[in-house]
Structure formats: structure tokens, C-alpha cells
Design goal:
This protein is of the alpha/beta class. Helix content is 25%, strand content 29%. The longest helix has 16 residues, at 117-132. It is globular and about 45 Å long. Bound molecules: S-adenosylmethionine (SAM).
């Protein structure tokens, strides 16, 4: 969330919030909406929200590929470890841009396919099995760069030996 630099009173969206593991990283001065398609995950996130008395957090069941929010609504949008587990990654990215205001910040942490080397070879070998489990190991970060009305600000390795990628972008629509 640091990469998004959320400011007091801003409206922020966390797509695929899961059990709410990243919710503690949002400042309490920010209004956070977390959505997820799984009622079981949301139930656990809701228990955490209640336990911590997080009045600044709202949770809702929703498909990230078709968000039930108005256009130009959020100041920042985060998606952690979710882009490659949805059937249509391009749709989740388009939706995030749609609900983001012009100038909104977007952060994505995801595994994107490596370009070469032994990791790429291993990814190719494992891709069939992980796709069967709902995780596309071959997804390229091109899907982010190709999203209309988005400007990628930075792209760098993150977490566990840099195997994951953190992309920070800005919504640049009119
Ligand atoms: C790998 S988990 C990551 C959860 C959380 N972001 C975290 O970092 O702990 C992926 C999450 O995406 C959610 N998800 C999968 N498909 C989705 C969809 N189409 N719309 C919304 N959430 C989805 C899953 O239910 C799950 O909670």
C-alpha cells in the first residue's frame, strides 16, 4: 500500500481482498473497500474487520472482472496476487481503470512469466498443472502494459526472492 501513497479521506479499493491479510497495511484515515468473489474468504475478512474495529473498511462480494461501482470512483486501487487467478485478467485490469478516477494510482502484485532462464523453463513445465488449479503461470506483464488508459510508473521484483512483481501505474484517461 506504501507504493500507492494513500492520503487521508481518499477512497481506495482492494480487489481480491481474500481473508484481509493486507488490510492492516491501509492507513485508517483512508476509506477502504475490499471485494472478493469468495464468500468464505470474505467471512474471514469480516471477522478480522470486526475484531479490529475497522470502521474505515467495507467488504463486499463481487466479481473483479465486473465491478459494481460507478466509473471514476476510486483514488487508488490495489490487487495483490489476484490477476492471474481470474479467467480474464485483461477484464480485471480494464475494470480497475474504469472505477479509478483520472490520476488514480494502481498497484498490482502478481506473478508474471519470466522472459528466459531456468525459471522460465520450470514455469513452462508446471503451467499445465497450475492452470488446472486456476493459476496462470504463463501470464505476461504485457497484459498490464496493454491496458488502455494506464501509464506504468514502475515495475520491479517484489517479495520471495523477487519471484513476484510489483507494478505501480496511474490512470491517465480524460
Ligand atoms: C491468492 S488469493 C489473494 C488474497 C489476498 N489478496 C492476499 O494477498 O492475501 C486470490 C483471491 O482472489 C479472489 N478471487 C478469485 N477470482 C476472483 C474474482 N473473479 N473476483 C474477485 N475475487 C476473486 C479469491 O477468492 C482469493 O481471495
Amino acid at each position: 500500500m506504501q507504493a500507492l501513497q494513500p492520503r487521508a479521506s481518499e477512497q481506495c479499493l482492494e480487489v481480491g481482498v481474500g481473508t484481509g491479510l493486507a488490510l492492516p497495511l491501509w492507513p485508517k484515515e483512508v476509506a477502504v473497500t475490499g471485494i472478493d468473489a469468495s464468500p468464505e474468504m470474505l467471512e474471514r475478512a469480516e471477522r478480522l474487520r470486526r475484531r479490529r474495529n475497522w470502521d474505515h473498511v467495507t467488504l463486499a462480494g463481487m466479481d473483479a472482472q465486473q465491478l459494481d461501482f460507478p466509473t471514476n470512483h476510486f483514488d487508488c486501487v490495489a490487487a495483490l496476487y489476484v490477476v492471474s487467478v481470474v479467467p480474464d485478467p485483461a477484464a480485471i485490469l480494464r475494470e480497475r481503470v474504469r472505477v479509478g478516477r483520472p490520476g488514480a494510482r494502481i498497484a498490482i502484485i502478481n506473478h508474471f512469466a519470466h522472459q528466459s532462464g531456468w525459471i522460465r523453463t520450470a514455469e513452462r513445465m508446471l503451467a499445465g498443472a497450475t492452470r488446472w488449479a486456476g493459476w496462470d503461470l504463463e501470464l505476461s506483464s504485457k497484459v498490464v502494459h496493454d491496458t488502455p488508459d494506464i501509464k506504468v510508473i514502475s515495475e520491479r521484483p517484489a517479495n520471495w526472492l523477487g519471484y513476484w512483481t510489483l507494478i505501480v501505474a496511474e490512470v491517465v484517461k480524460e
